[in-house]
């Protein structure tokens, strides 16, 4: 039961932000300092659950997913009400927008999990909750393009070695949107929904609230594409003699056994298994210790990827040398140094917020 409770990390963070909305820096500090430090302190999670129908169909694992969706929409209205109806300092506005954008990205994590399922309710929620980020077309590109062409030049969200996150994001956004128009009827429907969503926000919160909404939209999309960036960075499938790419395997995705972020992201870090079995529920995903393993969880990886030179210095040697214990331990030492520097900086901001 305690392990199940860890899947409620995101709902707890959402409720905490709503409750303590006057000081978002404390929530930010908890996410970007406490969680990375816990991931470093706790043992890695390589446990693979027994593949039973009972576990696969356990409805209790759906509850935190549905909660995240409901609370994500509640958080949107709470933040917009707070920022448009109160005199909020620029410092607290930055903090609140940062926490809102970060937590909004979990709408994609949950949407991703649900849109791969077979039930009409899950597919509906997984697709249409993304209208909050004006990104319902994600389900087209992700299912029909990414899963088919992952790890090849034909996939816009499989980052190449040496490609920076900042050049990757705009390119990935544009190509996915363009490719999604191959399913014209769906895209027409999603475009109308996006327009209606924008009109809805503008009519309620005027131009000020609408600008905040658009900032959140970009932030949540940027987090999504940053996840795409780190999941397959530099890993490529071989082109065979028959002009087909080799079959997707454990060695074409970066995985991470870091315990807290595994629960924070609903086992998204067991990414190789997800690509082999896309409809597999998150609670029974497996991890192979011989697969490419990141020296840090996805959350810290996204933080490091903001600094391309640091990211490439850590990751480029691992692309072909991920099985080397020496290389891996060296990359872990670099990650720890980054975490301590970032924790010091974030702690200073949090302390400043207490006296602002």
Helix and strand topology:
Layout lengths: L1 H4 L3 H11 L4 H18 L11 H4 L6 H23 L4 H15 L1 H10 L4 H9 L9 H12 L15 H16 L3 H49 L26 H6 L6 H6 L21 H8 L2 H14 L3 H31 L1
Oligomeric state of the chains present here: single chain
What general form does the structure show? globular
Strand residues, percent: under 5%
Gyration radius, in Å: 20 Å
From the N-terminal CA to the C-terminal CA, the straight-line distance is: 41 Å
Structural class: mainly alpha
Number of strands: 0
Helix content: 55-70%
Q: What's the tally of helices?
A: 16
On the 0-100 scale, what is the average pLDDT? 95
**H/E element order:** HHHHHHHHHHHHHHHH
Main beta-sheet annotation: none
Unreliable spans = none
Subcellular location: Cell inner membrane
Transmembrane segments: 12-35, 63-83, 187-205
Family: Belongs to the fatty acid desaturase type 1 family. AlkB subfamily.
Membrane topology: Multi-pass membrane protein
3D structure, described in words:
- Residues 107-285 form the Fatty acid desaturase domain.
- It comes from Paramecium pentaurelia.
- This is Fatty acid desaturase domain-containing protein.
- Its main location: membrane.
- The protein is mainly α.
- 66% of the residues lie in helices and 0% in strands.
- α5 packs antiparallel against α6 (90-104).
- The radius of gyration is 20 Å and the shape is globular.
Task: Write a short abstract of this structure.
By secondary structure, the protein is an all-alpha fold. It is 66% helix and 0% strand. α3 packs across α6 and α3 packs antiparallel against α16.
